[in-house]
Amino acid sequence: MKFVDEALIDVSAGHGGAGSVSFRREKFIPFGGPNGGDGGRGGSVWALADQNINTLIDYRYTRRHDAKNGEPGRGSDQFGAAGPDIELRMPVGTIISNAETGEQMVELLEHGQRALICKGGDGGFGNLHYKTSTNRSPRQKTPGWPGEAFKLKLELRVLADVGLLGMPNAGKSTLIAAISNARPKIADYPFTTLHPNLGVVRVGPERSFVVADVPGLIEGASEGAGLGHRFLRHLQRTRLLLHIVDAAPFDEGVDPVVQARAIVAELKKYDPKLHAKPRWLVFNKLDMVPEELREQRVKDYVRRLRWKGPVFSISALAREGLQPLIEKIHNHVAEQQRVAPLPDLRFDDPVPGGQDV
């Protein structure tokens, strides 16, 4: 299935049904009075988060979604039937915005979350509604109220704890395949990964985290080079970024330090908040480096980068150094998921209850 993470759709709720003007006409009942019912409510449009859907492809080709109108009222005190609501099932992580104003309307973050995005119009009043002690034969009625209509932009941002960042062919897909149940396409040419991949890493019983692999980023991505910044949005909800660096590039003229700096610069251009996320440096493909040179090469790269954060040396293909990395990632994610403790009360702060300490 093709991965689609953006779509534009038109949605409109149903109009309310018009009220009715009617009077009771029966034999031996000369003053039956008004009996025109109200119109029915128009159908509304709801968004429903579904974890079994992972793409917006359904909305790329079906762009119009209209709820039905409410039925008009009728005589004999009969109110019109309400128009049925419609539900639009979307992947968890979808952001729904007004395409014309840019205002964010709702964000679907949990499976089963249901949100109203387009409210149906109320039904109009029939003449039964206007009956009073002084107005016994009203002929007033009101039309139904119109339903809402919007042009919506759907944007999918995958939900993951850890995001993999790096140049094409740095080994990100090999790493996610080695540590999780994901099976991305792996080949020896750049931009093998064309869409994000998610994998669940099992550390132990009831201990796991989710990793996202996005297409490689190259220098000039902000100007559209490569696949550009298109898929970086999928890293904005992660708690940790792993910057994968190819420690043994095939081309001898390629400097991993220069590439790493270019990635960081492009990340900052795209979103300073994403650049400020916790980021670890992971040197990959060390199995292609002579064992006696590995430690010195990593130290040289770290020194030239002036890197002060955590550093890991692995070989995703040979499955070397992965277990310590997985354990560290899990501990970091678990720490981030904990609820922040309440702030300590100072002596001059009021105690919950109204009395001072």
Describe the structure.
With 357 residues, the chain is α/β, with parallel strands linked by helices. The chain folds into two domains: 6-156, GTP1/OBG domain (Spo0b-associated Gtp-binding Protein, Chain: A), CATH 2.70.210.12; 162-337, Rossmann fold (3-Layer(aba) Sandwich). 18% of the residues lie in helices and 22% in strands. The chain is built from six helices and 14 strands. The protein has helices at residues 57-61, 172-179, 256-270, 272-275, 291-305, 322-337; strands at residues 6-12, 45-50, 64-66, 86-91, 94-98, 104-107, 114-118, 149-156, 162-166, 197-204, 207-213, 240-246, 279-284, 311-313. The strands form three sheets. Strands 10-11-9-12-13-14 form a six-stranded mixed β-sheet, with helices on both faces. Strands 3-1-8-5-6 form a five-stranded mixed β-sheet. 36% of the residues are buried. The model is unreliable at 339-357 (pLDDT under 50).
Summarize the structure.
The chain is an alpha/beta fold and 357 residues long.
Key terms:
single chain, 357 residues, alpha/beta, Spo0b-associated Gtp-binding Protein, Chain: A, Rossmann fold, 2 domains, six-stranded mixed beta sheet, five-stranded mixed beta sheet, 22% strand, rod-shaped, disordered C terminus
Task: Outline the fold blueprint.
Layout: E1 6-12, E2 45-50, H1 57-61, E3 64-66, E4 86-91, E5 94-98, E6 104-107, E7 114-118, E8 149-156, E9 162-166, H2 172-179, E10 197-204, E11 207-213, E12 240-246, H3 256-270, H4 272-275, E13 279-284, H5 291-305, E14 311-313, H6 322-337
Parallel strand pairs: 1-3, 2-4, 9-11, 9-12, 12-13, 13-14
Antiparallel strand pairs: 1-8, 2-7, 5-6, 5-8, 10-11
